[in-house]
Amino acid sequence: MAANFQFISNSKPTLLQLTTVSICFLMNMLDGTNVMIISYTAPAIAKEWTINPQLMGFVFSAGLLGMAIGAMFLAPYADKIGRYAMVLISVVLMGATIFSTAYVQNAVQLILLRILSGFGIGAMLASTATLTSEYAPPKLKTLWVSLVMGGYPIGAVLSGLVVASFLPAYGWRLVFELAGVATLITIPLIIFFLGESLDFLFKTQPLNALKRINLLMKKMRMPLLAELPVLTADDKQKNTVSSLMVPQLKWATLKLWLGIFMCFATLYFLTSWIPKLAAITGMSVSLAIYAGTIFNLGAFAGIVTQGFLSAKFGLLKTITSFLFFTALLMISFSFFSRPAGILIMIGLIGFGIQGGFVGLYSLAADLYPTKIRATGVGWAIGLGRAGAIIGPIAGGTLITAGMHMSATFTVFSVPLLVGAAATWFNSTTEKG
């Protein structure tokens, strides 16, 4: 049997495909909840502990540091132990640490738990993007990956609504307890319903691979295999980070890293500081929280739109257009001063930046072959997190120095323009 055997066709998706992708969507919802919850609760935490904006920036960045470590050093194990196992490990780590955050007593403890929860969040993002790309029909891969990653802003929206409802009456600690429980109760769904990647089983052939492949193929109503094909010498090579730098991948990898670094810097400045910045303009605490919610509603619409447009016009053109459009919006932000205008602009910025940014996940999944896909996606996310770490800290420094909200938006439009250029000059080829 040929080593490039295609398990997933463009025929009608099976129940296993839809279930697996739905669980990946749910996992990304939890990711969005667990990332954004610190932004929504930041004003209450800062008030209780008398934390200044600069120190709060380090709290934001602690979680992003953990996400970088998780994406770069934990997610690559999905290429060794499987995507299913990594998703399960990630959700346990996320749930336990988020729940424990409700009981911290100082900023040091909070920073430590944000780092630990980041391990799980970073690994989860890379693993679900990889698994989705391997379960999606070839013609719908970009759309499916975009839809699944769209779970992230949906989780952020839901967490914003919960925080706005519960925070004033019950305090920020209950919010973390609810988020932790919501994460942990999904474990049975993963154990009983999540499918392992057929690509992974076929091309790595772990213990009982044939039995596991046939079980999945039976669920997908596909012919069973009598035996596994012989792996090629290339398939048997060890998967390392250096595999991302082979001649045919090196420059595409570097441009991907640059683009995602720049987008992360601006995106996480926005997601971390929008509620606080909105409050600075004179909005009430509840309305400032809803500003973050509107940002993420716009983000989900942008992600879905980007998925459809990318399927029609191509990833590179679509991502570049979205990022350039968002940079122009951020530069023009100073023309809006009324709350209604600010909220509309925040929604449009969310539409553009998240739509373009999530397209980079699809680009990463498309760029790398199966045996190094989780490693490639994980390292792109992880190195991009360096930008995410710098963004909130830089934002906190500028805000502490008294820079106006519109001026900070103009400053952070520059990385988007660089990211758009890096993406425009990137390229992908078909990988096995």
What report would you give on this structure?
The protein starts with 14 loop residues before the first helix and ends in an 8-residue tail after the last helix. Helix 1 packs antiparallel against helix 5 and helix 1 runs antiparallel to helix 8. It has a single domain, classed as MFS general substrate transporter like domains (Growth Hormone, Chain: A, Up-down Bundle). Helices cover 78% and strands 0% of the residues. The chain has 19 helices and no strands.
Provide a compact summary of the structure.
This protein has 432 residues and is mostly helical.
Number of strands: 0
CATH class: Mainly Alpha
Please compute the radius of gyration using only Cα atoms: 21 Å
Largest sheet: none
Q: Could you spell the SSE succession in H and E letters?
A: HHHHHHHHHHHHHHHHHHH
CATH homolog superfamily: MFS general substrate transporter like domains
Shape: globular
Low-pLDDT sequence parts: 1-5, 428-432
Task: Tell me, rounded to a whole number, the average pLDDT.
Answer: 87
Helix count equals 19
Question: N-to-C terminal Cα separation, in Å?
Answer: 15 Å
CATH topology: Growth Hormone, Chain: A
What is the total domain count? 1
Q: Tell me the helix content.
A: over 70%
Proportion in β-strands: under 5%
By helix and strand content, what is the structural category? Answer: mainly alpha
Name of the CATH architecture: Up-down Bundle
